[in-house]
Structures are given as structure tokens and as C-alpha cells.
UniProtKB/TrEMBL annotation:
Chief location: periplasm
Species of the source: Arthrobacter hankyongi
Annotated protein name in UniProt: ABC transporter substrate-binding protein
Domain of life assignment: Bacteria
InterPro entries (alphabetical): SBP (IPR006059)
Length: 353
């Protein structure tokens, strides 16, 4: 089972804080009005799967209405809520932070309410419940590319695979991808050789057009339309798009494993309901239901796997059968310690595009 990794995955986002669902206005836990909890996820198909697998069953079981919104998974949006609006309760996040940094944005998880049985100690941490794992994979548009690429080095091969590249606008995963393409083996990946990674990215930027995306919804639209013909994708997003008949595909070979966590904002207006939601989202039945509703999502709760159909479980990147196929787990601890410095450098490099 893969443990507390950095996500990409994870899964991610719909740009722009767009309301993805509706419900009664938020109220305090002691209110006589309809009880609510505001939960913020990545939007799009991921939101739809979350609604089916987690939000709706939680509402039926507890009577607490989930008011759902979506965001771009940026730390800036979370900081804006904590420092300003103070409307969100629970967020889905792929950014691991050290405890001292997390304390500025989140409140400790109340594990007297949230059952962490089935989770590793790392997955059920002080501020983050790393509940689901996914993979950053090499993806492509099948109408533009007829011969399937097989490695990240193919992303740099513009002669064999011409056309715009698609990459996530974030240093995490992209730096690892650049190093894999440059021949670094996974056992030598950390600490990241940041200089070497940016040099390799300079090479790609000089030879082709990079189409950056900030959300999972943008990513799938770009690959489906051919705006990006090859690049980094999230396996759940690409698999879901393929299932819907879009001309996309991916390989799990060389995939990077990353996690997505639930966390409660320190300014959550419905703190009691937030912990109740966290408890349900952590359950084995919720994890198994999400694995069925959204292809590629691997629950961190070990107790979920007996509930998942074999035809689905065998394709999850956390399946031991895929151990020698995927590249490995991104190092959340390294990123937590180095994120600010690397992100500042990334912003300068990206802005100079």
C-alpha cells in the first residue's frame, strides 16, 4: 500500500472557486436550522464521483447537508479563506505541509471522532487524512498519436511525437518527470536535483509549446481536444475521460504515485460537522465506493480493498502487481521541507515562459 505521498493526483481541480453544488446556508452546529458542512474539492468529474460515493451517502446517514464548492487546489485560495472569507469547512488538498506551517491553515484532526482504523500512521497525520492515492501518468491524444509512447523520455522526443505538450502548472511531479526523462532512476530521485530538473525543462520549453493546466477539468479538455497531444495526466481523470469515449489513453509505466488528503480549516464555521464528515470520508465503504465511481482512485484505508471488485482493484496503481511498473511514491516529506523555496523558483521560471 502506498503511503503519504505528494499528489498530483491526485486528482485535482476546477479553476476558479466555482460553485459545484448547492445547499442550505451554513449554520453553526448548535443551530436549529438545517445542519450543513461546506466541503471543497477539485470539481468536474471528480466532484461528481465524490458526490455519488461520499457526499450523498453522508447526507443520508447523518442528515447533515453537504454544501460543495470547487477550487484550483492552490494554497493561495486556502489562505484567502482562512484570512478572509472563513466560509469553508473541509478541503481536499494535495499539498503536504510541515506541522508548523499546517497549523497556520488547518486545525488538528479529532481522532476521537475520526476513525483511523485501516490507515497507516503516516496517512492519518495530525492535520491531514491522506485518504486516496492516484498516479501522474504519461497521457496522450489517440487521434494525434497513433504509436503509444512508453516513457517520459518520449515527452521530450518532438520528432517522433510532434505537437503541444501538456503539463501541470506546479513544480511537484513536473520536476520528478523531468529528472526521469533525463535518466535519473527512482532510487536516486531524492533529494531532488532541482538545477538538473530545470535545465531539462528549459530544453523542453525551447523545442515545443507547453500547454499548462491548473485543474483536472482543464487537463482532460486539453487532451480530449488535442490542444495537448502528449503530456502529464492524472490516471483517474484520463481513465474517466476515456470511459466517456474521448480519444485519450495513458500508460501506468513510470507513473508517479501521489496522495490527496482531507483537512479541516482552522476557521471552519462548522467544526463539529466537519469532523463528522471526515469520519465518513475515511470509512472503508466510502473509499471502496469512490474507487468504483472514479477510475484510478486507490483508497488509503486498507479495509476498503475487500469491498472493491477485482476487475477494478487490479488496475489501481497501489496494487502490488504494479510495483515494478510504476516509478514510485513522490516524497511528501522532502516537498514539505523544500516547497517554499522550490515554488518561488518555479514561479520565476514559469513567468518567464
Amino acid at each position: 500500500m502506498k503511503r503519504m505521498t505528494w499528489a498530483s493526483i491526485a486528482i485535482a481541480a476546477s479553476a476558479g472557486l466555482v460553485l459545484a453544488g448547492c445547499g442550505a446556508p451554513a449554520s453553526g452546529s448548535g443551530s436549529t436550522e438545517t445542519q450543513t458542512v461546506t466541503v471543497v474539492d477539485g470539481g468536474g468529474a471528480y466532484h461528481d464521483a465524490m458526490a455519488k460515493a461520499v457526499y450523498e451517502p453522508f447526507e443520508k446517514e447523518t442528515g447533515i447537508k453537504v454544501v460543495s464548492q470547487s477550487y484550483d487546489y492552490s494554497q493561495g485560495a486556502i489562505k484567502a479563506q482562512v484570512q478572509g472569507a472563513k466560509q469553508w469547512d473541509v478541503v481536499s488538498t494535495s499539498t503536504a505541509l510541515a506541522d508548523n506551517a499546517a497549523a497556520d491553515l488547518y486545525q488538528p484532526i479529532d481522532y476521537t471522532v475520526v476513525d483511523k482504523n485501516g490507515f497507516s500512521e503516516a496517512d492519518a497525520s495530525k492535520y491531514f487524512l491522506w485518504s486516496v492515492y492516484s498516479a501522474n501518468v504519461l497521457a496522450w491524444n489517440t487521434e494525434s498519436i497513433k504509436t503509444a509512447p512508453t516513457s517520459w523520455a518520449d515527452l521530450w522526443d518532438t520528432a517522433k511525437f510532434p505537437g503541444p505538450r501538456g503539463l501541470w502548472n506546479s513544480p511537484q511531479s513536473v520536476l520528478e518527470i523531468a529528472l526521469l526523462a533525463d535518466g535519473v532512476s527512482w532510487d536516486k530521485m531524492y533529494p531532488l536535483d532541482v538545477d538538473r530538473a530545470f535545465k531539462k525543462l528549459d530544453e523542453l520549453k525551447a523545442k515545443t509549446n507547453i500547454v499548462w493546466y491548473d485543474s483536472g477539468a482543464q487537463q482532460t479538455q486539453n487532451f480530449s481536444s488535442g490542444t495537448s497531444v502528449i503530456g502529464e495526466g492524472w490516471n483517474g481523470r484520463i481513465a474517466s475521460s476515456r470511459k466517456q469515449g474521448q480519444p485519450v489513453d495513458y500508460t501506468i509505466k513510470g507513473a508517479l504515485s501521489g496522495g490527496t488528503a482531507w483537512a479541516v480549516l482552522k476557521t471552519a464555521p462548522n467544526q463539529e460537522n466537519a469532523m463528522k464528515f471526515m469520519n465518513y470520508a475515511a470509512s472503508a465503504q466510502a473509499g471502496a465506493a469512490l474507487a468504483e465511481a472514479f477510475p484510478g482512485m486507490s483508497p488509503a484505508n486498507d479495509k476498503a480493498y475487500p469491498m472493491i471488485p477485482e476487475n477494478i482493484a487490479k488496475n489501481l496503481e497501489s496494487n502490488p502487481a504494479n510495483k515494478d511498473v510504476v516509478a514510485g511514491n513522490m516524497d511528501a516529506q522532502w516537498w514539505a521541507a523544500n516547497y517554499d523555496a522550490v515554488y518561488d523558483r518555479w514561479q520565476k521560471w514559469y513567468s518567464a515562459k
